[in-house]
Batch of 2 targets.
Target 1
Amino acid sequence: MPVLAPWSLLLLSCMTLVDGSAYVEYVEGTGLPIILISGHGGTLSPERDRPNAGCWDGQKCIFRRGCGKTDRTRCKTTRSNDLYTKDMTVALREELCGIAGVCPTAIMGNINRRVLDFNREIEEACFGVQSMIDVYNEYYGYLEESKLALNGSGIIFDIHGHGHDIARAELGYAVTKARLNSGNYTENMTSIRNLLERSPYEMDDILRGEHSLGQYLLLEGYDAIPSPVYPSPSDTSYYSGGYTTKTYGSRNGGSVDAIQIESARSHREMPEQMYYVKALATAIFKFYKKHYTTESETTTVEQTTTIQPTTTEAETTLVTTEGKTSTSMPTTTTTTTTTEAAVVTTKQPIIETSSNGCPKSCLDSFAAFIWGFLCIAFF
């Protein structure tokens, strides 16, 4: 057993690896009443995988480890990730910051879907594992707080990815494929009920017409459904919106709407993602301006924002190009001439990134490890 020199012990004491990274990341908005949420792009596996199915008790599915014989026909679970959706959410937020001059809120789950499904009811999402229940509650706690902070109308965009044959954006309003095909749906069946009830425009005009999100994406060069060109899925695959959209949109009341955005894999992969995200951000902002504000209330500011890491473990501060920093609660005004600072809060220490995108803590820890190893071996 080698004897450690005192200064090599000091080096070893500094070898602090990020403890499992952050299970939930929350980036506070700075005045734009939009919430971006992404739950299927995580890669961490702090617990065992969820079973591929729950059990059927004769009336309902039981999602619990050790429940008995599983039923993959009635109670099958989905465990595949939506690749690149977290990166896309981060990029989408930055694009919206640049377009609007103020930033939306972003909430991202970092746990692999095989372990925890953030877009399901809690039983199926966690299979009774308490540590995952805690993370799930944290994720939706941030969403609840973010909705309250809007203090009025706003909209959630739930970012997902599909693997269907047709490379187009599938926009989910909690209206089923069958109802879109038949046209047999009403305002209170949708996740944008609040918007539809207060808007002077017709329901179909907002859902799949000239003032729809799908139309704005078409104008940016990307196919989308529903839209004027693709008003209904017909016999093609289509995701209408999952748990988050149905539960946290305005279908059951409230002033905050929700739309699920399912993006094709070819649009999520680099380098196409860069162009797609710009188009999606532009479409989202046009939809927001048309339905959630007036032209006079929104100022577009062309200004870049850089990330300046702080020395604390609990937050990261955005710094404007003018050098202004802030970690205080931002105001909610929508007219501004600078990009406000944003505070990032996580359950565990945030991963700071270096200029090449690699987690800074990993680089620091790796360097410390090498020095510590040399000290142990040679001193």
Target 2
Amino acid sequence: MQNDSWKSWLLQRLKSRDVLIGLALMTLCVGLGLYLRIGGLPRGYSSDEMAMLQPWGFWQILTDPESAVNPPLLRLMFNVPFDTAHTLYYGRLFSFCCNIVAIGLAFWLGRLVSRSNLGGLVAAGLVVFHPYAGLQASIFRSYSAWMLIAFWHLISLCRLVETRGDRSVAVAIQVGVSAFLLPQIHFFSVPILLAEGLALLTLFPANRKDFLLFVPAGLGFLPFGIYILNEPARRVLPDNEGVWGAVETVVGISGMLEQVAMVLVLCLLFWPLLNRGQRMLLCGAMGVVVSVVIFGGKQLVRPPASIFMLPFFAVLTAAIPWLIPK
């Protein structure tokens, strides 16, 4: 009886504003920590930031061989209007802001998928405590921006599939715009979008027409896809010892193995219990695994790439307690 009373008290507290206060305090602590870290970094750029700092013109950035590895959008945004020093400063500030906003979006998506405040708080907490998410939030690279757009994209996509074809124009526009931007931030997004598009065609018959929302993303990536084929990435980065080398580096060293295992467990044990949004997240997560295999032959896959699994892993993990039958 006492145990039931404790559970009732906990559930009542989780429905109150205390959860939002906890989220705000957690985000504030992370923001303060990242701010202090950025202030303590050396004034010079790190080796990871070197590829992002190109003080050239628009056309030079667009046609540089580096664009066969990293999309030029962020470099165009910061290198064209600023000099090198200001590019580094504003680029790091941009990564910092993206990470902070992504924590809030993780809470929103976790709450949307699990239908509970606790699910949202767990999802946000997993983003907060992910080591590579914190590291990349303090340097000028594409991962924090990608994570922000990915959470926005998944929120819109889950809302889209939950409507069973009776979607609003605003949600459809958000899905299309976010899908277009993801490959412009990182090419790793392409197999993920393909997995989501195939899921719309096969698993969600009422949403088959929504596959057209992904067409602009494919057209936007097409010039870079042709460029990648004509300008191989090995001219910029050395070989990564084949597919197994990439799998060993990303899945083994970075901690993605646990995330992949969680996704497989969800597929095998809970698929009949998943709602439409959760099933879409699982399909996207499998696209991440496919991405590792596709890009594994080159050193396009680094340990921070575990961030690409993070939006799916964090939200699905948060939803597990609500999937277990009572």
